[in-house]
Description:
The chain is 45% helix and 16% strand. The chain is α/β, with parallel strands linked by helices. It has a single domain (3-271), classed as TIM Barrel (Alpha-Beta Barrel). Helix 10 (227-235) runs parallel beside helix 12. The N and C termini lie far apart (43 Å). The model has no long low-confidence stretch (mean pLDDT 96).
Amino acid sequence: xxxxxxxxxxxxEDMESRRRLxxxxxxxxxxxxxxxxxxxxxxxxxxSPSRDELKVIAEIKRRSPSKGDLASIADPASLAVQYAxxxxxxxxxxxxxxxxxxxxxxxxxxxxxxxxxxxxKDFTVDEYQIxxxxxxxxxxxxxxxxxxxxAQLNEFSALSHELGMNVLVETHTEEEIERAxxxxxxxxxxxxxxxxxxxxxxxxxxxxxxxxxxxxxxVAESGxxxxxxxxxxxxxxxxxxxxxxxxxxxxxxxxxxxxxxxxGAAAIAxxx
Length: 272
Ligand SMILES: O=P(O)(O)OC[C@@H](O)[C@@H](O)c1c[nH]c2ccccc12
């Protein structure tokens, strides 16, 4: 069993516990009552042809299977406000409980605190989670190609779009990029961390990003330690970066995001 398989077993068990408390019908009512989803595609620069900026997706993550405890984050709402003030375009809230220490309560707290699009970051393996995301104010969900069949990728994307949300489709190999493109993904992430082994290989980004159609928003995921890594991803074709650890473990995340955006814009100016 890979790390990913193992995580998904826990994700399903936790989802079944929640489903016993909140039925799908109840979630649908809550989703219908929620404010409409915000446009994460536009926030990430999707429709604009120039794309001279590097967008930042700033993540709220307490711990991870690869790194253990990262930050206690007693007040996710205040961290989210710092992220938004620093110029993040989207905030990623990791809601997976067992391995990452997150929850839907974090998503609720962040939703109440900021007006920019939110990514519900989790291991989506069931439609129930997509309804949950919308009911709790998410605007964007993550679909991990390695965890899904083509049929699931298509169905889950279609449902997300029906609910007004966008989808970040995460890939790690050439074959997964082909599958993401076949599913008409327009926000495509390359995770340089292999979810089956947890190894990080930053050089993977440049080789895979070139395979993604230019109409898509290309997101470099994982492994940003500092401005040099940001420049590396921007030079390699990233339109956006998804950063967790470097921000949750920084005393001044607001300044850090501004620094990453400046490094990204400088590298993109050279690229263009
Ligand atoms: O903390 P990092 O190295 O900046 O990584 C953030 C993000 O890419 C990572 O949390 C992530 C990418 N894909 C995932 C899927 C599930 C859980 C977590 C992730």
